[in-house]
Amino acid sequence: MSRPLHRYRSHNCGAPNEALVGQKIRLSGWCHRIRDHGGVLFIDLRDHYGLTQCVVDPDSPAFAQAEKLRSEWVVRLDGEVRKRPAGTENPDMPTGQVEVYVNEIEVLGAAAELPVPVFGDQPYPEDTRLKYRFIDLRREKLHQNIMLRGRIIDSIRMRMKQAGFFEFQTPILTASSPEGARDFLVPSRLHPGKFYALPQAPQQFKQLIMVAGFDRYFQIAPCFRDEDARADRSPGEFYQLDVEMSFVTQEDVFGAIEPVLRGLFEEFANGKAVTQKFPRISFRESMLKYGTDKPDLRNPLLIADVSEEFAREDVSFKAFKGKTVRAIPAPGAAAQPRSFFDKLNDWARSEGAPGLGYVIFEEEGGALAGKGPIAKFIPPEAQAAIAAKAGVKAGDAVFFSAGEETAAARLAGMARLRIGDELGVSKKDVFEFCWIVDFPMYEWNEDEKKIDFSHNPFSMPQGGMEALESQDPRTILAYQYDIVCNGVELSSGAIRNHSPDIMKKAFEIAGYGEDVLIEKFGGMYRAFQYGAPPHGGIAPGVDRIVMLLAEEENLREVTLFPMNQRAEDLLMGAPSEVTMKHLRELHIRLNLPETKA
Question: In the predicted model, what is the mean pLDDT of the chain?
Fold first, then answer.
């Protein structure tokens, strides 16, 4: 005697195959697509596991019910598995050799007219997609991205545990701390006028875990920052692989994290090559050669500094005099039409620059000769020096970015990427990693006319107390590092300043007294008075890792329920107003900005 079928399904929609031919089965799912072929209805039934073609012909007792079905209705279908007629098989589908001949249909959930189509992959307004995210998530690519995210996180956890790390959970309600972004504040009902903050990162807690003697910590940590959205940064919240280690040098951190990321990317790269030994590039070298501290190494072009060449007395191009000038090579560009050069000039102007000067190199009489609008202002000797520094030959061109050093570097970096793409010299199917190291500890704050921290104030200065006491602060480097993949910064990290005396001196140089340490970072500063081990860590962004591996350009394509660019949750209606009763319980009175009439 056959067993009765489950109330909703005997198999999922990815299961039917030739081994089930002749068997009666029950499926439940969404009507992905309904087609009428000469009176015979074909229903592609979809669930989390896959899609099965179901057939209802006019002789079926379920035909009248089938005619009422519409896209995205949730139904239960009973029927017999049959082999598809010859020539109608679909080898691209796991269930493509069979179909289900339907004899009974039950509607489990009718659907209203869809605000977002599920079938197909056409673009749709983002706000509509986010408001109806539960429908958007049914779309195949987005559904796959979210499942990929889960597998990636599982792999991260496995790899971290295999490397000897233990997973800890740190508090969500904590104290406000100035870490370069705004906190989300949570009012305390029990302590009127006081607020908790959602953690921008578990930074202080993970360092305290090291002080407590736990040695190797990791966490897939939620982080909250009230900052503007970007394609590679979610507004509101994001997740990171938070890591901290005791008794380690910078190289120890690299040695622990590099195999995890390399193995993770190899696992999910779909055959793309992955860097085997991540190169170390100093911050200074990166800013010079790539115009950014987030270099995309898929692009082989290297920027050169040619300020000296344009400062020569025999160079009469006055627009570059007294400025930092960076040269970007353009191999083979001499063969490009004039429109190629004009388009790059127009692009530079759209970025706020006067343009991109350029010289095209050709061979004349066995020597290089420069052509183009500014070539006549540059004598042959200077042209040869520029060509040598930029590494170009006859048939190539050089573009120039000039201005204040930071601005010149920034424009050169963007031009390098654009030229590489235009000329097709950048690699595509690879994941190119690197470490950026030797960040400056301090920088000049022009607004306040003083020395200030360049990045993380809690990094250990290279040279320790001796460097702080004897060097010009702007020459001091920190044991701070970033990890970059394909031009995307995945993480910042550092060897921490665990010495109270060195920390006090480091803050003093930036104009902050011990009172600031005690007020803002009292818990951690106090803990360091009681025996703190040397420690360091890093925190690669999980969202950005998934974005790269899913080959998406926007983090919202790899996040279940993201906010829009204005940090609004259109699905749940957040942020929202609250009642006066609620505000009174929290001892809060609103002081809203005046609205314009």
Answer: 93
